[in-house]
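Recap from last week: sequence in, structure out.
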Amino acid sequence: MARTQIQLPDEVFARAKRLCEAREISLAELARRGIEYILSVYSNDPSAVNDWQPPKPRRLGWKGLSDAELKQRAQITATEASLRKAVHSMNRSGKLPEPKTLLSGAAMMLARR
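Predicted structure tokens:
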């Protein structure tokens, strides 16, 4: 086993000593456990941090829309959605929605672009 020295701020040292007394362990044992824990959490290979990639997207069973269509629909604003809903209801019912609704929605859409 190797021997080493460390420097601790007074407050950290006092807290560590109190913990050691409460747990009935030595300061050396506390330091060993702390170092072992940190080493278990962090990778042994420092280059592995640079190789991290986010996970690949998974297919979750959605059927009917392509990835591009899903992305497009996810980026629709509330105004665009209300306009599409109004136009869709117009197509189904055959009557026009209130002109104010369509014009204000269209103006808001153009103002955002």
